Amino acid sequence: MKNVTIKDVAKAAGVSYSTVSRALSGSPEISEETRGRILDICKEMHYTPNTVARSMVMKSTKLLGLILPGINNPFMSELSYHIDRQARARGYNIILCNSSRDIEQERELFELMIGRQVDGVILLPAGPESYDSLQPFFSRLPTVFVGENLRDAQESYVSVDNFRGTYMGVEYLYRLGHRDILYFGKRQGSITHQLRSEGYAAACQDLGLTPQFCNNTFPGTSIKYGYQLAKQLLVQERRFTAVFASTDTNALGIMQAAEEMGLKIPQDFSLLGFDNIRDSGLPRIELTTIEQPMKMLASVAVHTLLEKVQNELAGYTHRILTPTLIERSSCRQV
Amino acid sequence: MKNVTIKDVAKAAGVSYSTVSRALSGSPEISEETRGRILDICKEMHYTPNTVARSMVMKSTKLLGLILPGINNPFMSELSYHIDRQARARGYNIILCNSSRDIEQERELFELMIGRQVDGVILLPAGPESYDSLQPFFSRLPTVFVGENLRDAQESYVSVDNFRGTYMGVEYLYRLGHRDILYFGKRQGSITHQLRSEGYAAACQDLGLTPQFCNNTFPGTSIKYGYQLAKQLLVQERRFTAVFASTDTNALGIMQAAEEMGLKIPQDFSLLGFDNIRDSGLPRIELTTIEQPMKMLASVAVHTLLEKVQNELAGYTHRILTPTLIERSSCRQV
DNA sequence: CTCTATTGTAAAAGCGTTTTCGCAAAAAAG
DNA sequence: CTTTTTTGCGAAAACGCTTTTACAATAGAG
């Protein structure tokens, strides 16, 4: 099971191992004849350079850490796919790390990534406290936050324009004739959620609507929490013709609750989501939503990080992408 | 941005670096006093051992390759989550690699993993040809297939009992009174799919039913392909009261087609899936299905691989797990 | 025909660890 | 007190590679 090394190749070719190294790295200081001969021998012997040894001397592992709450989450897994593709296209591999939304584990993972000498990390934070909790690491490890807007934080991030997303959403519902729009799942803490509810409030103000909130008191956003919250909401008899859910997962929860209570969407009320996770496009779901451009998010994230890594840039970059409205069938004209 | 090394710590502590190493590794050949002093200095200097350097001498990277068609696939991302958790609990990290169902890329990834000196790889194969295509690598890199039954192949795999799964499914539908059960999405090639259709056929035979197939002529199984195939099927006026879809994604495609054509599930026909992907439990989907126990699959896969790695076992292991029926509301009594 | 460029290759240094070996000093035994 | 054993630690080798430096051999210039 032991691997063939550059020395074995050198011996077989009857040259020194520096010559083999040159042959492989495309150095000009070698004759085409020797190079050809060596390359043939490499192939024949199934020689694969030891990346670990190379990393040591090059002081670069060509490895990126991807730290996220949970890869089993449609939004994150979609994003991860694109991140991996993008990274590999640029010669990097990804080490996958699930923090399970645990701020302590997240910190441990950073420590681990430093030990592993990754060239940088792409972070989907475990929670709003992540930025503060991890701050000591940022100077030791190039980092870029993805999907989370950190406002004016002193670290790189790429995110969608959450404020504009909800603003657009309200405008859309307004155009469909809705005047009583409820914002579902407003949360404290996460700046992303703060911006989303601010965008909603601003649009209401500009259009002369009265903002109406249903606050999420649960520790996170998931189908289950959305469902439980919706159960509470739907017995309250509040007046609304449309619900703007803070995330698609929340919207899915609402759907489930509505279903159970015999309410039809969009007949009884329109429902608008945010994120455009895969599930939202599913046959009987057909949720109209504000899309986060995940492929772009991934691509910009990798680009931003590598720019930092390769040019040894100090400082940080903030990139805010524009969301798009995806019209499906959960909103109707009134 | 340069990291502090063991030498820096040694200098600060006024000892040789072998002493520092001993202090950290818990060697008994060091006095408790010196150890304490050194550990304090390590903490103070934010020293994190360089795993790459350690890997070189230990000849183990504590890294596992995870090669799969696409992490953006509910089944695979769920599985990956558990694989990562399990691996990390045992001191390993995961390098994520998407093959995009491309047999050629898959091979390149193996090459890459060998270069990176991973201790082993967990493989969700890109296709039925994967086993043959990758065979040359298996002797160089401990590998375990997951989710795919390779029958009597000479390599480790852990999979669900696909034959038994469909067999159980048919029995269930039979108990609900169905006598005309159509198997949707039979495919060539993949042994998993072969076993599933065989299980279906065997159950039909044993129960005195006539097997009825709708073959999948598309290159893979996805919602879109399922949808297209279902469109063809539903105009054919074949007689059936239940459809057994070869995968949940296929079932989702059928739902979409049925929806469009004004057919109701389970009123117009019952629908049974296989896999129990996350989507199947979603509010308005509620697909009854045969579950693959993903957490168990992940756990057994990691265990099997590490056993091989750590004990330097030659040979292979086949582990077949039992599936469970998850009853939701896409099947009705007739 | 000697002197200097140019070219192809070999040898050595270094990357950050772990581990083996050996040497002192301290402790135990005689 | 001397001799032997233990204990704590330093020096150095090894891991597989890249890069730099040094050195031949060949070719071109004077």
List keywords for this structure.
6-stranded mixed sheet; 12 helices; 334 residues; Rossmann fold; 6-stranded parallel sheet; DNA-binding; homodimer; 12 strands; 45% helix; 3 domains; alpha/beta; 434 Repressor (Amino-terminal Domain)
**CATH topology (fold) name of the largest domain in chain A:** Rossmann fold
Q: The biggest beta sheet of chain A, please?
A: 6 strands, parallel
Summarize the largest interface: chains and residue counts.
A-B, 56 and 56 residues
CATH superfamily of the largest domain in chain A: Response regulator
Q: Can you tell me about this structure?
A:
Two copies of one chain form a homodimer. In chain A, helix 1 packs across helix 2, helix 2 crosses helix 3 and helix 8 packs parallel to helix 9. The first copy, chain A, contains twelve helices and twelve strands. The first copy, chain A, is of the alpha/beta class. In chain A, strand 3, helix 7 and strand 4 form a beta-alpha-beta unit. Chains A and B meet through helix 4, helix 5, strand 2, helix 6 and helix 11 of A and helix 4, helix 5, strand 2, helix 6 and helix 11 of B. Strand 2 of chain A pairs antiparallel with strand 2 of chain B. Chain A binds a DNA duplex (30 and 30 nucleotides) through helix 2 and helix 4.
